[in-house]
Request: fold
Amino acid sequence: MIKIDKELIEEHGINDQEYEFILSSLKREPTITELGIFSAMWSEHCSYKSSKTWLKKLPTKNNKVIQGPGENAGVIDLGDGDAAVFKMESHNHPSFIEPYQGAATGVGGIMRDVFTMGARPVALLNSIRFGDTDHPKTKHLLTGVVSGIGGYGNCMGVPTVGGEVEFNSCYNDNILVNAMCVGIAKIDKIFYSKASGIGNSVVYVGSKTGRDGIHGATMASAEFDDDSDEKRPTVQVGDPFAEKLLLEACLELMTMDIIIAIQDMGAAGLTSSAVEMASKGGVGINLNLDMVPCREKKMSAYEIMLSESQERMLMIIEPDKEQEAKAVFDKWGLDFATIGILTDTNHLVINHNDELKAEIRLDILESGAPSYDRPYKIIKESAFDESLVKETAESPINILKRLINSPNLCSRKWVWEQYDHMVMNDTILRPGGDAAIVRVHGTNKGLAISTDSTPRYCSADPVEGGKQAVAESWRNITSVGALPIAITDCMNFGNPEKEEIMGQFAGVVTGMIEACEILDYPVVSGNVSLYNETNGKGINPTPAIGGIGLIENLNHFSTPHLKRDNDTVLLVGKTDGYLGQSIYAKEILNIISGLPPKVNLKNEKKIGDTIRDLININKLDTVHDISDGGFLVALTEMSISGGIGVKIHLDEKDVSPKFLFGEDQGRYIISVPDELISDILRILELKNIFFQKIGKTSGTKIIINDSEEIEIKSLKKIHEDWFNEYLKG
Amino acid sequence: MRVSVIVFPGSNCDRDVAVSLKKFSNKSPLMIWHKETSLPDSDLIVLPGGFSYGDYLRCGSMAANSPIMKEVKKSAEKGSSILGICNGFQILTESGLLPGTLIRNQGLSFICKNTSLRVENDKSFFTHNYNKNEIVNIPIAHNEGNYFADENVIKDIEDKNLVAFRYCNKNGDINEETNPNGSLKNIAGIINEKGNVLGMMPHPERATDDITGLNDGEKFFTSIIESIK
Reply:
């Protein structure tokens, strides 16, 4: 017997108070297996102990939401009996230690969350953030993560259709890898994780259990230090081929009316799936670990319960249907083992080698889990000092060239060309636009999907930044003509035990709540990743928002690329020329202080709703929202992707960095042919929406006020060269 | 018209190619699981793209040795036409139905993008609806698509006009710049001497739908369907 001492308890991330609770609940010392189970279930990653008091304030419902947070993934109604099932999750710590496998298994894990609910995954997205481009680890981490994401998704045959990449020194020693998956299911064929039916079998399917990833959930809930490399053995190894077989086998079994409940074995492996499924159903569960298919010999109960080996699922089925179910898994060459039974004892009971290894009342694990109302302090930057913006002699075109060749504004083509973004043949709008569009197979409906966050805004003003992240997601979905429906969030923050970090969390959630409410854009699933710090320095608060919208009829949608000569280009929404926290301020002026731009949510909604209506009545096919880098960068992206130039005519006072590169929110650029311009102007005026005419599309150059010009071809080269140059060096 | 699509564990373009075949023939192909030991009589057998057997050992090599491939070879000998796309092309070279091999892309990474192809052979079962030297836009998505064979083999397939497609640019230029993966002579697809087996890395099934902006694969499928009739 392993002696449970203070050191061991500490190693398991359990504090004195929590241990006292364990002792008083069990009325004895825990076994080592039990200690491991408590440690995993009460880790920040599984228990949300620091975040749940805030998370439960988020809006989670609207008339399209079928399933909000609390299941493997969120579910929304797409009409005609179709549902979208989606979620985003972090795999930050493993990806820093072993970028390829960390990222790959992040993608694998999020796909399991989706197909465990009966949905076929149809789209993957991601949100990845790295340290400074000069940091010695950045290249290695970037190339490893990108090939890991591609390696898994490509093999699964699920297209990776979008994402975001950011470089910032705050991620130097703590990169972020957030993966999102969207699946499609029939509403009446959605599977849940609530176990039921005393006497029903607990069935294990998929790959065998090995010693990989033991205590991953606990690792993901601790700060890193310089010895983190030693944690490499706790990174799981992915096998996308096994997952592809598991996907097909599960979906095949799901057509047969056999599964009562199902959940993937993700963080904290068999422990969390068994505990969560039984707790949700209010039943007990007995497991015989002798029956678990193991890859390695002599694994202990502790190791089996805490392994995070990939590509495994736990199901509840009726005992007399076992043979029928097993036949399906035999066909796909996957393990199928009955490892336990549901009981009426409300206990988790674990036997191994004919010994009782654990016996814990489930309510102690679940509802007894600690919840902390941690003290917080919301800190904002002071107002942006406009006097720091000096007059510049540098020409706007020159500044533009520098900006679009900077790490955070250059083309991400190098990244997404490594992802199969077309497989399944339903990718209607590929990566590189505001949102990807994926057709619901066999229909004329489309899903618009994007991932967004602006962490520097959140750091400067958590509340405003939280609002902005949600608003930008909504705006991107709107830009392609879709009605935004709901979001999944992946909340990446530092150590919540510090007041100012908890303040960032509280502030961002507060801002998100306001935006979700006003934009009717609730949160239906998500994940929290805290302790993203290394040696005591936290990352920028990073709420990655994965948004989904619906295009009812794919005959009408819009894209950012310019399509015709002689269109009128309009800038919709008011431009004050606000440079606080802009990329211009950082890259060109080297100023990183000041408040971020304000988000006016009512205005945002009015403008966005109007733009979407115009797309849906077929009056608008070219729209791009303005975000990082401001107006001129957005217009340049439209020009480059369409291969058509623009003759810009501006008041002389507007030929200034403030107007051209300011990041005022709630703005779009639209391009309108002559025959529709009067209709468009009339509608914008009627709705009292501010707009200004910017110029006309024509030729192959961007020309500003007939004085400065540049060929789009050379802009395209500058825009696309950055990654190649960076990785060459 | 009898078309069979072989589904290996890890195939992932089986549905896509079945959708395209149905679109132009109005008939769904039979989906044949790799463990089947007999094949129904087929005018066309398709080996779809994907990662058969997880690409373990070497792309296409495990599939090439699977029981169903014995049947595919027999059918090929009897005159059925065989189409291998992407991983299917790799399986065809691994099983000896086509010469040469597909090695890792020169740039060492997976590439998914549109490519321009020049039609080299416009007389085949699979390509007769194209014109010679026609430039078509068909995407690629692979990590091991770099076609390699020894000099004699290359000379032989070129002399016999067995190259179906070559990578090029919009003007049809064939050179290093327009070669996405390092393939010898920019070879994107080849036909066997008998004319009934074609392997290609690009995905024609991804270019059959106007809404995606790509439809140059249509003539590929209509060629096949008309050949069968």
Remarks:
- Helices of chain B lie at 14-25, 61-64, 67-78, 87-94, 151-159, 218-228.
